[in-house]
Write a sequence for this structure.
């Protein structure tokens, strides 16, 4: 795999391979020294044009745990504020010869565009409303661990589907893994024609009890140029996932950041049914697996050497950092 731009680039076998490798990396997080030498001497550039807590910190940690050198580039404080374009920024930073660029921008398609301006492997960490493939992978990984598998699971994605790149990537990934996906929200926040992706659509929570997994989305104010719901209070009255609506057998997911009291009530966020902390934890190992895949993947599965993930190195203890 040269780049990771869209979840559409991955078939079921590729998703499973990445999740299996992520599982093999979870052992690294248990060590006192949380590092393996897999990407020693490689440089990973994190280029973030949008706010991020989880995604940026987990990509940074993932690269560092694989022993790569990491450069974090945040737009605030950079020459972007002086008018430098995305292309010129990429060309300038390209002079540092990054092996991989992890990029988040508010522009759909920007990650794909950047592949034309650099030789580095590009990993899409969110491009506008379009896609967020590593979020989908970490959610698949989290569900496989919790449910044992996703085949046949009934997954409801509830909330602002229209402005959500997570929804798009997750619908595709969950279905590729054999789940049945239903999207639910007010008609103004469900894109017209979304059924074409293969999911069902509901405009109320009446049948939520049929779901095995409830995946709630944040109201994406920053992408709204008008009022899409009469008020947040009204939205919450009709669509908030709370203790009354969440059945004890269901598990709850959310990509974060959560707006407590809007899409989720505080009680369900803090309940043992919520997998939100597990999703964040999965973010590090899944991003380790993705960086490994784009930077060392060609060698993966080949003869073991000290660049392999822990499982490959079982017979090569010298490779353990
Ligand atoms: C999401 C994003 O930025 O797309 N957050 C994340 O990466 N975990 C979802 C959101 O902002 O609501």
């Amino acid at each position: 795999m040269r780049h990771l731009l869209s979840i559409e680039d991955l078939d079921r076998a590729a998703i499973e391979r990445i999740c299996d490798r992520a599982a093999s990396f979870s052992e690294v997080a248990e060590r006192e020294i949380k590092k393996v030498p897999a990407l020693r001497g490689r440089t990973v550039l994190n280029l973030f044009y949008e706010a991020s807590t989880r995604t940026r910190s987990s990509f940074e940690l993932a690269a560092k745990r694989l022993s790569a050198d990491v450069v974090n580039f945040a737009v605030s404080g950079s020459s972007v504020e002086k008018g430098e374009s995305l292309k010129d920024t990429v060309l300038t930073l390209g002079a540092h010869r990054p092996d991989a660029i992890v990029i988040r921008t508010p522009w759909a398609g920007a990650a794909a565009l950047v592949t034309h301006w650099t030789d580095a492997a590009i990993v899409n960490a969110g491009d506008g409303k379009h896609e967020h493939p590593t979020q989908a992978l970490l959610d698949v990984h989290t569900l496989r661990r919790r449910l044992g598998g996703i085949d046949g699971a009934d997954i409801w994605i509830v909330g602002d589907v229209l402005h959500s790149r997570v929804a798009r990537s997750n619908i595709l990934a969950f279905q590729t893994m054999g789940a049945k996906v239903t999207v639910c929200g007010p008609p103004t926040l469900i894109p017209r024609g979304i059924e074409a992706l293969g999911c069902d659509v509901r405009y109320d929570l009446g049948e939520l009890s049929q779901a095995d997994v409830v995946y709630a989305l944040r109201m994406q104010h920053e992408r709204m140029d008008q009022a899409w719901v009469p008020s947040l209070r009204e939205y919450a009255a009709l669509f908030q996932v709370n203790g009354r609506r969440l059945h004890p057998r269901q598990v709850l997911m959310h990509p974060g950041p959560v707006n407590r009291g809007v899409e989720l009530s505080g009680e369900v966020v803090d309940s043992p049914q919520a997998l939100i902390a597990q999703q964040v934890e999965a973010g590090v190992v899944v991003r380790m697996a993705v960086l490994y895949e784009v930077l060392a993947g060609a060698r993966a599965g080949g003869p073991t050497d000290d660049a392999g993930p822990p499982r490959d190195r079982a017979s090569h203890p010298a490779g353990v950092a």
In short: Strands lie at 43-48, 69-74, 100-105, 121-127, 154-158, 180-184, 200-202, 213-216, 251-253. The pocket of N-carbamoyl-L-aspartate is lined by residues 54-55, 126, 132, 135, 165-166, 218, 220, 255-256 (CB under 6 Å).
